[in-house]
Amino acid sequence: MEDGRIVQLYWDRDQRAIPETEGKYGKLLHSISWNLLHSREDAEECVNDTYLRAWEAIPPARPGAFRIWLGQITRNLSLDRWKSRRAEKRGGGAEALLGELEDCLPDQRGRSVEDLELAELLNVFLRGLSREARAAFLRRYWYGESLAEIAGALGCGEGKVKSSLFRSRRALREYLEKEGIAV
Amino acid sequence: MRAERLFRVLGLTDPALVEEAMETRARQVEWKRWAALAACLALAVSLGFGWRVTGGFGGYGSGDSGGDSGSAGVSGDAPADGAPADPGESGGGGSGVEEGITFLSYAGPVLPLTTLEDPGPLAAEREVTWDFSPRANSHGETRQWGAEVTDAYVLRNDTGEDVTVTALYPFPGTFDSLPLVLPRITIEGEKTETALIAGPYSGGFQPTIGAETPDTMNLETLNSWEEYKALLEGGEYLAQALGEYPALDTPVTVYRFSDFAAPLEKYQAATQAVSFRLDESVTQVLTYGFNGCEWDEGFRRYSYFVPDGKRNEPDLKLLVILGEDIGPYTLQGFQDGGCNPGEEIEGVSCTVTRSETTLDAVLDQLCAYYQERYARSRAADQDNAFNVVPFEMYRGAAAELLSQYGVLSGAPMDRYMDGRLDDILAETMSHSRVLYLRFPVTVEAGGSVGLEVRFWKEPSFDYGCSGSENEGLQGYDLTTRLGSSLAFTRQRAALVNTENVEITGQNFGFDLPGGVTAVELDLEQEHYYLEARPIEE
Questions:
Q1: Which positions ≥6 away from B29 have C-beta within 8 Å?
Q2: What is the number of other CB atoms lying within 10 angstroms of the CB of residue B471?
Q3: How many domains, in total, are found in chain A?
């Protein structure tokens, strides 16, 4: 079913919206959540919560890029779930991802910006990368894919992915510092 | 938790970039290395590269890049008597430009009816109408995208004898798109039976962007009406469309891999590799269902991710050997598709079955397998192109692609030099081509026949987020006589249900604010174009 029609089901308060969403995007959302949590149960709950959030948000929302919009919700819910784990060690993919993203953080002398302004700066940065480097970066830090998965998808070795990500993280940090932005 | 904030804000980045990331695949990244390798086989350097299924089931996205060469539109010569006024005055676009936009994605023109035989004394009148009824798209999209086209003809026979001709209606498309764009034809209001004919891939090949040495890795689709003109003038393309598909009765040896096992709970990307030596001067290897390949002089290693029942990958895996058989082979499991030394693992196994047959028989098997997978991959409300494309046509077109541009060609394109049949089968569905509907028409002595061709026409456009100033514009065009054998005495064009569009550029002479929605066309002018922008609610 076309995304527009699924969104319309939400608007019509038609409960078929959720199974339609699940059928079309459940696998992707589960994959994103799994990548962050490495827990089937937690991922399952986050994906179910994603459907609930979508049901609550539409209407009034009418997301254009529905797939990405759902993915954003799942990412945030999964990160919340990861943070709420009270175990001694949280583990999961999020720990590694956030650790890597530490490399991108500029020093704190820059000015603070709102999320949307920061997102726009990230867009500019990402568009400046080569397509392959951008794909590796977003597969890693948007979809949470492992190095092996990215290597398999892009047809290269993990070492190449690793070095590409390293260069991109360093470049992002330099870019944010040049723009005088604090995160 | 600054990293956490950065992670969350990354979630707000441009959806187009996020989508693109999942569409960027192995071919775009790695072909450059393959090209260098092909040119430098003498170098005894082991070079690995990977593959990934590039199309068919998840949306084909690699290489079909459109490009920006060529130009659409024609100069606005002075109109003939009765022809429209200068578009700059009446067009409503007011751009003042004499040529249309060269869109990044060119949908191809509305082409005129032709006949297989000399139409003799038949004279033809034509009227093309674009209907911009809101959301007329059969997919019910919530935006104005495309138009319903009616290409109507009146054929007159002023002689004293009946004339029967075989009519051919050409239209640009792909096998994938046929459920949406297949024309319906009526003669005197009655639906007529038609036979579908498919021309070969209509585009060419272009180098990888930034390639150190020019290659033919990427597709280069037709970008302008002039390129359609070059394709169709002379009749060779139509002749090939009407000809026989190639027979591939070459003897082959087939190694089939089945009964897969691997410790997938520990290694999600567990990989089975098969390596062997061969003499490349007497042996060619085609593959199906494999994800990776390494190549050195006299050595090959092919590998696949062990099927886990989750990934959407074929469980039919074949090595097809043309010429002399390969030598003894070795099987080895690896942690992932990298197949790197030190990452070997135990517990990966399969059954290998060797058989001898012909390439035709292999293609029969693979095309049937592909057809079944294609059908399974359709959602309940998605059209199955195989309901429109006969199996024999698809299979023949795959053989044609393999013979014309693949490893069976005397000069194969770099894109297909790896012998990966997955690509041949998937791209047979997605390749742009000119298709034809064939049907007989009889015009009685002294009489006339009216026939109508109706179809959905998607627009030419510039991709979202391309940074183009033409984002949001939709292009439509027609050719008046390209490839047609008919003698036209009159052609007209019309627009209906235009309340949801505004014209931004054209050389027709429509004036929507002034109520001019139908115009006479100059028969000497080969090409007309229209650029429109949907009026958002």
A1: A132, A154, A155, A156
A2: 13
A3: 2
Which structural domain range is residue A153 located in? Answer: 97-182
* Cis status of the peptide bond prior to A59, with omega within 30 of 0: yes
Q: Which of these three, B430, B465, B481, is where a domain ends?
A: B430
Instruction: Judge: B3–A131 Cβ closer than 8 Å, yes or no.
Output: no
Smallest CA-to-CA distance from B419 within B439, B402, B395 is with: B402
Q: Provide φ and ψ at A47, rounded to 5°.
A: -70, -40
Residue B38 pLDDT level (bands cut at 50, 70, 90): very low
Angle formed at CA B343 by CA B339 and CA B345, multiple of 5 degrees: 100
Between A171 and B324, where is the model more confident?
Answer: B324
Whether B279 is covered by a domain: the verdict is yes
Mutation site, B9, B57, B308, B468, interface A, largest A CB count within 10 A:
B9
B368 with B397, same domain: the answer is: yes
CA B362 – CA B316 distance, rounded (Å):
12
3-class SS at B315?
Answer: coil
Q: For residues B475 and B531, is the Cβ–Cβ distance under 8 A?
A: yes
The pTM for the full model equals 0.65
Q: What is the pLDDT of residue B142?
A: 53
- Classify residue B13 by its DSSP letter: S
CB-CB contact of B57 with B430 (8 Å): no
Integer Cα distance of A29 and B7 in angstroms: 17
pLDDT digit string, tens, across residues B438-456 = 999 999 999 999 999 999 9
pLDDT at B47 over 70: no
How much is the mean pLDDT over chain B?
83
DSSP annotation of B120: T
DSSP assignments along B396-407, one per residue: HHHHHHHHHTST
Handedness of CA B205, B206, B209, B212 (dihedral sign): positive
* Same domain? B344 vs B356: yes
- Grouping H, G, I as helix, E, B as strand and the rest as coil, residue B496 is strand
Residues of A in contact with B305 (CB under 8 A): 152
For residue B213, pLDDT beyond 80: no
Residues A107 and A58 in one domain: no
- Residues ≥6 apart with Cβ < 8 Å to B37: B47, B295
Question: Which residues numbered 11-30 in A keep a CB inside 8 Å of some CB on B?
Answer: 23-24
Contact B404, B201 (CB under 8 A): yes
In this structure, the answer to whether residues B16 and B54 fall within a common structural domain is yes
The interface predicted TM-score of the complex, written ipTM, equals: 0.87
Contact B199, B434 (CB under 8 A): yes
Side chain identity at B277, as an amino acid letter?
R
B106: pLDDT strictly greater than 60: yes
Q: Write out the H or E segment, with its range, that includes residue B329.
A: strand B329-334
Predicted pLDDT at B135:
57
Q: Pick B57 or B10 by higher pLDDT.
A: B10
DSSP H or E stretch at residue B218: strand B218-220
Pairing outcome for strands B114-115 and B47-50:
unpaired
pLDDT in tens, B454-469: 999 989 988 765 667 7
Assign residue B149 the CATH number of its domain.
2.60.40.3680
Q: Is B380 exposed, middle or buried (0-12, 13-18, 19+ CB in 10 A)?
A: exposed
Residues A45 and A25 in one domain: yes
Q: What is the pLDDT of residue B89?
A: 35
CA of B254 vs chain A CAs: smallest distance (Å): 26
Nearest-Cα residue of chain A relative to residue B310: A27
Closest by CA position to A119, among listed A129, A110, A127: A127
pLDDT at B240: 96
Range of the domain at B420: 2-64+247-430
Give, to the nearest 10 degrees, the angle between helix B26-39 and helix A147-154: 60
Which residues of chain A have a CB within 8 Å of the CB of B340? 157-158
Task: Tell me, yes or no, whether B235 lies in a domain.
Answer: no
* pLDDT, position B99: 67
Judge if A66 and A107 occupy the same domain.
no
